[in-house]
UniProtKB/TrEMBL annotation:
Protein name per UniProt: Flavin-containing monooxygenase
Keywords tagged on the record: FAD, Flavoprotein, Monooxygenase, Oxidoreductase
Family matches, as InterPro entries: FAD/NAD-bd_sf (IPR036188), Flavin_mOase-like (IPR020946), FMO-like (IPR050346)
UniProt entry tagged with the keyword Ion transport: no
Source species, domain of life: Eukaryota
UniProt EC number: 1.-.-.-
Cofactor: FAD
Keyword set includes Translocase: no
Length: 357
């Protein structure tokens, strides 16, 4: 829940304010009855925010449009992100694509390959290459971003965990059952609704749903009652990534395993394979290395993340560009063959996904 200045919080609002987590706990019928006939405002424009706005617009239509308040426009992908019939997994989720990226613990040969292929990387991944084409000619067109003033100011590559726009979302915006308000910095509440910074008009609402995410670092700290251990696991640098071996285990507290503190282009998939890895560890199939070895591995991955990844608001780790390389390591830990495809060409050029594991 966001923090508000004194006398600016929800306590002065005559309507109701909940977090998206509370809404998600409702069954379908309860959720429908909860929003039906109400003027709903959703704060946030990632996965939960867009899904809730779609559900509210389905229930209330254009008579009571759902207002979505957006602080920072994002490069959210269309539901059918296959421009001109091209499956982008072949470009960005294959072993070959990862040869262009310097990897933690890669060795001399792979390092030389990454350096040699760096011109191809710049065409393949960066703003001057295919990403730019997809962004300019497809995402902007498909999501009608320019029409609604929703073109982000930051690079497409500055995203780690990218949300997928629900099918038909911008059709709802077009018909008027969803209303977008961009660069909306919420100052607080009045009796009638939400007060925005620099705007005199109140966003009149009867129900406000805060799709404002979760403070994951607070959840980690409050595993422990001891202030010493809270500071130990969270660290002293508020901008640094939380150091987790295999994005799962803190080397100083190896008795505690943390699932879900790693961002990627497919976060559920990333968490599920770590659940399997953890189950194999608890079953005694392998052991974690010494603290020194774990800290060295974490430092190598931290170097990669600073070079290729971007996480402005979170302290989660981001492995978006190296899914296959990271999963290879998990497979080797568990005693599995990391090569999951059949045949040379499939192994190197077909995209890797959840079903391969």
């Amino acid at each position: 829940m966001p923090e508000f200045r004194p006398n600016n919080g929800p306590e002065g609002f005559e309507g109701q304010v909940i977090h998206s987590m509370d809404y998600s706990k409702m069954d379908s019928k309860s959720a429908t009855n909860f929003v039906k006939g109400k003027q709903v405002a959703v704060v946030g424009f990632q996965r939960s925010g867009m899904d809730i706005a779609m559900e509210c617009s389905t229930v209330n239509g254009v008579e009571r449009p759902c207002t979505v308040l957006i602080r920072t426009p994002q490069w959210n992908l269309p539901a059918d992100f296959s421009p001109w019939g091209l499956n982008l997994g072949y470009l960005y989720l294959s072993r070959f694509s990862e040869l262009m990226v310097h990897k933690p613990g890669e060795g001399l040969l792979l390092s030389l390959l990454a350096t040699t292929l760096s011109p191809l990387y710049h065409f393949h991944f960066t703003e001057v290459g295919l990403i730019k084409i997809c962004r300019k000619l497809y995402i902007k067109h498909k999501n009608r971003l320019a029409k609604y003033g929703m073109v982000p100011e930051h690079s497409f590559l500055n995203e780690c965990s990218v949300a997928v726009v629900p099918e038909g979302f911008y059709d709802r915006v077009e018909e008027g059952s969803i209303k977008l308000i961009k660069k909306a910095e919420c100052l607080g509440f009045s009796k009638e609704g939400i007060v925005l910074e620099g705007k005199a008009e109140t966003i009149k609402s009867e129900l406000v749903i805060l799709a404002t995410g979760f403070k994951g670092i607070d959840k980690l700290k409050h595993i422990f009652e001891s202030t010493k251990y809270q500071e130990f696991i969270a660290g002293s640098d508020d901008s640094a990534t939380v150091p987790l071996y295999r994005e799962c285990i803190h080397p100083g507290i190896p008795q505690v395993a943390i699932i879900g503190f790693s961002e990627s282009t497919a976060t559920l998939y990333t968490s599920e394979i770590r659940c399997r890895w953890l189950a194999e560890l608890l079953d005694g199939k392998f052991k974690v290395p010494s603290i020194k070895v774990m800290e060295k591995e974490i430092a190598e991955w931290d170097k990669y993340k600073k070079r290729y990844s971007y996480n402005k608001y979170y302290r989660n780790s981001c492995i978006a560009a190296l899914h296959v390389w990271r999963n290879d390591q998990l497979c080797k830990d568990m005693g599995w063959n990391p090569k999951r495809k059949k045949g040379f060409w499939a192994e190197w050029f077909q995209p890797y996904g959840p079903m391969d594991y």
